[in-house]
Amino acid sequence: MKPSTFPFWVASISSWASPVTAASCWRDTTCSGPSEAAFPGPWDSNIYAPTSRSVLPEFAFTTQNRSSTLLGDSRALHGNGSNIVYDFGREVGGIVSFLYSASGPGSIGIAFTEASTWIGEWSDASNGRFSGRDGALYVDVSTAGNGTYTMPDKSMRGGFRYMTVFLLSNSNVTIQISEVKLEISFQPTWADLRAYQGYFHSSDELLNRIWYAGAYTLQTNAVPVNTGRWVPTLANGWANNGTMGPGDTIIVDGAKRDRAVWPGDMGIAVPSSFVSIGDLDSVKNALQVMYDYQNKDGSFPEAGPPLLQQNSDTYHMWTMIGTYNYMLYTNDAAFVQQNWAKYLRAMEYIYGKVDASGLLNQTGTRDWARWQTGFNNTEVNVILYHTLRTSASLAVWLNDTVGLSDQWLKRALPLQTAITKYCFDESYGAFKDNATATELHPQDANSMAILFGLINATSPTASSISSRLTENWSPIGAVAPELPENISPFISSFEIQAHLTIDETDRALDLIRRSWGWYANHPNGTGSTVIEGYLVNGTFGYRSSRGYGYDASYVSHAHGWSSGPTSALTEFIVGLSVTGPAGRTWSLKPQFGDLKFAEAGFTTGLGKFQAKWEKSSSGYNVTFETPKGTTGLVGLPIIQSGKKPFFKINGEVEDIGVDGGRAVVSVDGVHFLGLFLNPSALFATCHLTQRRYMVIGQYSKEIGYIGL
Ligand SMILES: *[C@@H]1O[C@H](CO)[C@@H](O)[C@H](O)[C@H]1NC(C)=O
Ligand SMILES: *[C@@H]1O[C@H](CO)[C@@H](O)[C@H](O)[C@H]1NC(C)=O
Ligand SMILES: *[C@@H]1O[C@H](CO)[C@@H](O)[C@H](O)[C@H]1NC(C)=O
Ligand SMILES: *[C@@H]1O[C@H](CO)[C@@H](O)[C@H](O)[C@H]1NC(C)=O
Ligand SMILES: *[C@@H]1O[C@H](CO)[C@@H](O)[C@H](O)[C@H]1NC(C)=O
Ligand SMILES: *[C@@H]1O[C@H](CO)[C@@H](O)[C@H](O)[C@H]1NC(C)=O
Ligand SMILES: *[C@@H]1O[C@H](CO)[C@@H](O)[C@H](O)[C@H]1NC(C)=O
Ligand SMILES: *[C@@H]1O[C@H](CO)[C@@H](O)[C@H](O)[C@H]1NC(C)=O
Ligand SMILES: *[C@@H]1O[C@H](CO)[C@@H](O)[C@H](O)[C@H]1NC(C)=O
Ligand SMILES: *[C@@H]1O[C@H](CO)[C@@H](O)[C@H](O)[C@H]1NC(C)=O
Ligand SMILES: *[C@@H]1O[C@H](CO)[C@@H](O)[C@H](O)[C@H]1NC(C)=O
Ligand SMILES: *[C@@H]1O[C@H](CO)[C@@H](O)[C@H](O)[C@H]1NC(C)=O
Fold this sequence. Notes:
Blueprint: E1 54-55, E2 59-61, E3 69-70, E4 74-78, E5 83-102, E6 106-113, E7 137-141, E8 145-150, E9 157-168, E10 174-184, E11 199-202, H1 205-220, E12 222-223, E13 250-251, H2 263-275, H3 281-292, H4 313-330, H5 333-338, H6 340-351, H7 378-397, H8 404-423, E14 424-425, E15 430-431, H9 443-451, H10 460-469, E16 473-474, E17 477-478, E18 486-487, H11 489-501, H12 505-520, E19 534-535, H13 564-574, E20 576-578, E21 585-588, E22 597-604, E23 607-616, E24 619-625, E25 631-637, E26 646-649, E27 652-654, E28 671-676, E29 684-688, E30 704-707
Parallel strand pairs: 21-25, 29-30
Antiparallel strand pairs: 1-10, 2-3, 2-5, 4-10, 5-8, 5-9, 5-10, 6-7, 6-9, 11-22, 12-13, 14-15, 16-17, 18-19, 20-21, 22-23, 23-24, 24-29, 25-28, 26-27, 26-30
The structure holds 2-acetamido-2-deoxy-beta-D-glucopyranose (12 copies).
One 2-acetamido-2-deoxy-beta-D-glucopyranose binds at residues 65, 67, 69.
């Protein structure tokens, strides 16, 4: 078999190379981002990022007549109250400018919104005061004549799709508006906003769009460090002139707001950023600022400056888990070592809250917006379990010699026992909200208990929880019992991964399509990003009654914490994930669901990782390629029982019985898992068909085969 039989990453490269554009980084920022896409291909047509940092609106209309037309060069405002609505066709953010030519005096107003719902003279809300929407910027034109307008830097609008330009005037003036332009401020260190270091493609067009909407959202959330939301909150208007942390680029929670570092959000955003755009610089700076602002007692802030909100045990731990994720994706041990003393204090701070019951007593009560927190809350305890186990891995990766890894694993065991003993509701078959007689079975703790391995993935318990979770589903997504009426794509990002962890593939794909599909196809949405949250009645008013002042326009429509499908589709559906720093160990465990094919790739300092599977009526093929010197665990779905799998390197058949070699794990009898040693560049072809049949592939000198 010649390499050209596998065109998906060989043959297509040249014809799909990114077009060369007049690319540039933000203002005087040093360009340190990637210069080209790692996996160019036909899937690039799904990328929402524009080819240039300077973008023009695509369509225009008026509030009186919303029939959109392609934008011509120049449009006119005639008389008081007239307007032009500019549609950039996707979420954008940055500095707007235009030329005007006035026949007399007047005032030009400029208002912004992400959702079309709030097109008009008042921008959607972002300033955090909850005293009304954001209003507009104004350009005062005193006499007839021409002028240029560029919005002030501090008024930079971080996230919007629609811009309404309107005229206030006492006289019958005409103002011609032309050359409307936006200078994009996000992803400031990248010269080419489309130079993705990862990709995803599958037979399902909706899933492809959702994956790329997550990726683009993360780009809009990687922003210049001096463009944070100003605190104290303004009574009128908005200002994005706050300093958020070190470096040139930093990952924030949302494009429009809050524009601050939120470590909890990073729990979903960072894995998705890694598999898609591959921006870990923004993550490093975001983590560093949390270490820089660690409190004397060892606690981390809940959010970075200038907001600097405090008092969250869960977000404290998300900073620790974020450090683990960052090390996992980059192997940047120097960064972790530089902050290690602070990490240890953070561990003692949080573990010190475990009381005689064996459970953590949550006293830092802020969290993601669930109503009830505090005391022996289940979610916080499940997160502590994950923190202890990820910390143990971190210690191993740092070659710790003082037994920290053992110590932390020894702490995780009794915690697991206590959570199961006090927080599990046997009669219901899922976790309760805390260790009391409550009837509430939350979406967050139950999803995380499966995803974080607190309960055995092959146990009836896991399957019961997964099934119970579906009882929260509505036609447009899962309603969180711990935040009634609300649909949280953040917590649902954990839920889809929980179902995938136990091979409930159809269930996970169903929830992705209902929830993220609902927003992706919503006519009022950005059509390019993932939303922070929404209500089960189909309005965008997430958290209306829980801190957002009943102002549905405050909700962010580009929130990285909702990007879970992006990492899930790569890591569980294609099934390719890293398990050791920078992918020196990795895992490939595909899941098919109702898809015909799926493929994905991502990049680490060690090189490119890529895998593809394709189904047919008689079986399936898996092909993959990982960097030299890496080691992986391959687990392939068995489609016919009773066939003994084998595995070939250079023609030699290796018997890899379930307990052969090291670290061979039997997941559930449906999977075969083999330890796949990969001393050199690997290109394996797998044919599982009804006959014992294997096709030989060839790539470089080393060839691996897996067959049945
Ligand atoms: C609305 O705008 C569209 C597109 O410009 C135009 O074809 C249509 O005639 C307009 N309708 C009215 C009622 O003005
Ligand atoms: C003002 O701009 C218009 C184009 O919008 C142009 O035709 C006109 O010559 C300009 N006038 C002056 C005085 O520059
Ligand atoms: C306003 O000016 C336009 C042309 O500039 C003219 O057609 C229209 O009749 C004027 N309206 C009034 C109320 O003066
Ligand atoms: C940011 O803008 C706000 C509102 O205009 C202003 O009060 C504040 O002083 C500005 N901060 C800085 C650092 O420029
Ligand atoms: C948990 O901490 C709170 C606040 O410090 C305290 O009032 C409560 O008694 C503690 N609960 C338990 C079970 O220790
Ligand atoms: C336990 O959870 C329920 C449901 O969230 C809540 O009403 C109750 O206040 C919680 N009790 C404690 C002690 O945290
Ligand atoms: C840990 O030890 C290994 C083997 O000696 C070495 O290659 C690696 O660089 C060490 N890692 C750190 C973070 O010191
Ligand atoms: C959980 O917290 C509640 C409220 O403080 C307390 O009554 C209960 O005994 C605690 N349960 C355990 C197992 O610690
Ligand atoms: C997980 O559960 C399965 C089936 O109940 C069992 O065979 C296996 O030993 C369990 N694994 C662990 C690590 O407890
Ligand atoms: C949706 O639910 C919210 C919260 O209960 C409520 O405020 C809003 O009026 C509802 N909107 C519609 C259209 O039902
Ligand atoms: C969508 O926009 C229309 C107006 O065009 C509005 O009537 C409707 O309520 C909006 N829907 C949502 C969910 O905001
Ligand atoms: C697997 O790939 C080989 C070579 O491309 C092809 O001949 C075969 O039909 C494929 N089988 C399946 C099940 O897709």
